[in-house]
Amino acid sequence: MRGVSCGGYRFLEHTTDAYFEASGKTLEEAFENAGKALFEVMLNTSKVECRAQKLIVDSGIDAYNALYRWLEDLLIIFNVEKLAFTQFKIVFEKSVEDLKDLKKPLRFLGEVCGEKTDPEKHEIRNEVKAVTYSLMKITKENDCWYVSTVLDL
């Protein structure tokens, strides 16, 4: 039995970096919650308002690479455009129904909403240097998808 209900995220123990597990009733929802976890590591997302939307179109050679690319795209936008996000929506070009679909190429369209980063308002917490494949997992248990990975701080 997992320690997180289906549809959220939790932080796991790691000696030096940020390690999280996100979940959802669909793999898309788990990816969305992974985006929330990424931003929660970096700042206080409860202080971020939805003022500007951004579209992200990308793909991965498989679901693991797609998760990496999704989080990396979010991190790049945060670092380059100084945008912090609080709302995340992602749609896959083809549905992912079970674990055998994880090895297939995965194209996605993401829509995020947030605002320009304000260090005082958003209470900057950690600098995430990179998304990693370390401890990356994608699993499905009892109709709930789980994704986990480590962020290099």
What Rg do the Cα atoms give?
14 Å
Largest sheet: 5 strands, antiparallel
Count of beta strands = 8
* End-to-end Cα distance: 29 Å
Number of domains: 1
**What is the string of helix and strand elements?**
EEHEHEEHEEE
Strand content: 35-45%
Instruction: Write down the overall mean pLDDT.
Output: 95
CATH homology-level superfamily = Archease domain
Q: Any idea what the shape is?
A: globular
- Please identify the structural class as seen in this structure: alpha+beta
Residue windows where pLDDT falls under 50 for at least 5 positions: none
Output the number of helix runs. Answer: 3
In the CATH hierarchy, the third-tier topology is known as Archease, Possible Chaperone, Chain: A, domain 1
Describe this structure in words.
With 153 residues, the protein is of the alpha+beta class. It has a single domain, classed as Archease, Possible Chaperone, Chain: A, domain 1. It is built from 3 helices and 8 strands. The strands form 2 sheets. Strands 1, 2, 6, 7 and 8 form a 5-stranded antiparallel beta sheet that branches. It has a 3-stranded antiparallel beta sheet with strand order 3-5-4, covered by helices on one side. Strand 7 (137-141) and strand 8 (144-152) form a beta hairpin. Helix 1 (27-42) runs parallel beside helix 2 (63-81). The two termini are 29 Å apart.
Supply database-style keywords.
3 helices, Archease, Possible Chaperone, Chain: A, domain 1, 5-stranded antiparallel beta sheet, single chain, alpha+beta, about 150 residues, 8 strands, globular, 3-stranded antiparallel beta sheet
